[in-house]
Fold this sequence. Notes:
The chain is globular and about 55 Å long. 43% of the residues lie in helices and 14% in strands. It is α/β, with parallel strands linked by helices.
Amino acid sequence: xxxxxxxxxxxxxxxxxxxxxxxxxxxxxxxxxxxxxxxxxxxxxxxxxxxxxxxxxxxxxxxxxxxxxxxxxxxxxxxxxxxxxxxxxxxxxxxxxxxxxxxxxxxxxxxxxxxxxxxxxxxxxxxxxxxxxxxxxxxxxxxxxxxxxxxxxxxxxxxxxxxxxxxxxxxxxxxxxxxxxxxxxxxxxxxxxxxxxxxxxxxxxxxxxxxxxxxxxxxxxxxxxxxxxxxxxxxxxxxxxxxxxxxxxxxxxxxxxxxxxxxxxxxxxxxxxxxxxxxxxxxxxxxxxxxxxxxxxxxxxxxxxxxxxxxxxxxxxxxxxxxxxxxx
Length: 328
């Protein structure tokens, strides 16, 4: 049986029990003004208020605390442009074990600082281009594993990671079972896969929608083609969504997700700014993509109750995109 078929609501509930003492049960915000603007009832699940400022903390803690003492003693290793790096560093520090992070040199300074703040050991990815490929990330992580014998924790293509990310939707739908639509960003697919399998198990009628940048639309291409279409040279501001789907996440997405829509770079920036103006919160570009999909009318939401996962809040405050000309 394919490993993806073994990930179930039961594993998500187990993850919730395992990580409950370590992660935040994040709030859900609403805005009457945004409801009037969109003609829908919008509910924002604020993972920007999660520890380390991102949903990935859920999967990282589930992975780290799933390890035996013998496995944990050698530490953990992952590859990440920032958010997974910080989340895993925090989870490892909490358990008292080392974390080794294969990270690109172009990562945001704020995300590099977060990894160092949480005690992660950064190893720079040797890449031919500015943005490393998935193969270059994997090669760097493999070298670290060979040297340290650390346990690998994949940022998205790991059952423990997927189950951990699914706890976000579990919380969301327990608080708001009336949702008609549930929107989540998609890069490697860990959040969307965990969200979709959880949502369909709890509320079979709910429509789960993945949202991604037009400039990194491999998930939509994969969804329509019925096979993984690799991400090549993504140029989006949403740095957390530049990765390709994995062989665990893709089958879950193909089975449980109803559609994947894309958004423009301008809409991502507008959504970030609107969240600041209307909700009074900071979200990073990747977390703004689902709201951007609504603002650009990439799906019909009128008259519906819509859940939106704001996946993270680790924006680069020194280079807010509406204050700088560059958007890639």
